[in-house]
Amino acid sequence: MSNHRRDVSPTLSRRDGMRPRSPAEALEPGRAPPRPHGMRQKRESRVLSGFARIVSGVMTLALVMMLAGGALTLFTGHLYSRPGPLTTTQTIVIPKGTSTNSIADDLEREGVVSSRWAFMVNYLVQSRMHPGEVVLKSGEYLFKPGVSIRDVIAILSEGKSVLYKVTIPEGLTSQQIVERLKSEENLTGDVTQIPAEGSLMPETYSIEKGMSRQELLDRMQAKQKQVLDAAWERRREGLPLQSPEQAVVLASIIEKETGRADERERIAGVFSNRLTKGMPLQSDPTILYGIYGGGVQWGKPILQTEKDAKNAHNTYQIKGLPPTPICNPGRPALEAALNPSQHGDVFFVADGTGGHIFSATLKDHNAAVSNWRKVEKDMRARQAAAAGTAEPAADGAAAPAGDAAAPANPVTEIPNPPAEDAPAAPAEAAAPAGTTTVSAIPLPIRKPKK
């Protein structure tokens, strides 16, 4: 078979079998082939089309909301952190039970925040992000110039309110402490019951404006228990004390006997020696408390008739410790009662300079008392000269029990000079005008009974 050369170009044919009329027509796509037999053409679902449109709309709306939320977040974040409008230090009092809206109004009115709405939005956001942590609390708050909303919310949530100081001096009775708290204007509420004597710890306490008086008393009782428990654990072995309660009783007597820090342990040693030997304590402050109780005036001179009065607290008439403390002792007195100095002294008497002379024997004590009598006489002479009156009779003063020179029933008793570093008596416990204050009266010259 021979190969024949084709001189004619191949024809451009369309799929429909017709010859194209031009090269351009040959390039046009042809018709799609018909569907195979047995297959039906599906129509576009209107339901799916509508659902797609809804999804698209929702996604578009969500995107718009996200963009708007981001812009709002940036704006509120700017307001949240930027310095506020306050130009001077401002104190704001938020009473208990105040609503969040009222707090926002007060902050805007006082110029702490520029907008109550900005404060509310940021507070709501923070409270949702940190549930239970961001809660606005009542109290008195100090805001510094330029404080931001962030700082305002933190201060109110953490309760960083202004703190005031309340100082309770050592040696007051529970009744006197309650009276002092009643005059404290930053405290609120009534006290329905006087706390037990010796159950309060005298210290300086930080309080918030509006704190209740009972709450502060509860804090003082909790503090006293904490200090007492720790001191009891560190007590010296062999003490004549059977319980922490007895330690408080002894500490209260030590507290009223001296205001000098360098004498507490030594006086505690004297009382410890007396308890060990079975001697009566013969402490003069117990006389006053036994007669007048919680309302006692600690600067009152002691009469011989009062010293002879029989009651449960008068340690001239009873042996051992009184049934209750006579005041609320401080931490140093408690420590001294439980860690007294070890020595053989069983007597002490004022030396006229604010301190005391300690003695282990009756002979030495008699000499110290004689010296004190001279000091007393000079004191009376100076007082009489200052008053422009004649010196009172020397035998009008009550001498320590056992002194033969003392009359049986003296009318007055000249007190000792106050300790130089003794704390000032509170206003409610001050002695009447013109009365010399008492810090300590000599222990009586009496031999221990065998």
Unreliable residue runs: 390-450
**Relative strand content:** 5-15%
Distance between the termini: 163 Å
Question: Which H/E pattern describes the elements?
Answer: HHEHHEHEHEEEHHHHHHEEH
Number of domains: 3
- What number is the mean pLDDT? 79
> Into which percent range does the helicity of residues fall?
40-55%
Q: If strands are numbered along the chain, what order do they take across the biggest sheet? A: 1-2
Coarse shape: elongated
* Cα-based radius of gyration, to the nearest Å: 46 Å
Structural class: mainly alpha
Detailed description of the structure:
- There is one protein chain.
- α2 packs across α4 (116-129), α8 packs across α9 and α8 crosses α12 (331-338).
- The longest helix is centred in the N-terminal third of the chain and has 36 residues, at 46-81.
- The protein has a two-stranded antiparallel sheet. Strands 3-5 form a two-stranded antiparallel sheet.
- The chain starts with 22 loop residues before the first helix and ends in a 63-residue tail after the last helix.
- It is mainly alpha-helical and 450 residues long.
- It folds into three domains: 90-158, Endolytic murein transglycosylase (Dna Ligase, domain 1, 2-Layer Sandwich); 163-223, no CATH class; 224-429, no CATH class.
- It has helices spanning 23-27, 46-81, 100-109, 116-129, 149-158, 174-182, 213-233, 244-257, 264-277, 284-292, 304-308, 331-338, 362-387; strands at residues 90-94, 139-143, 163-167, 187-188, 204-208, 211-212, 347-350, 356-359.
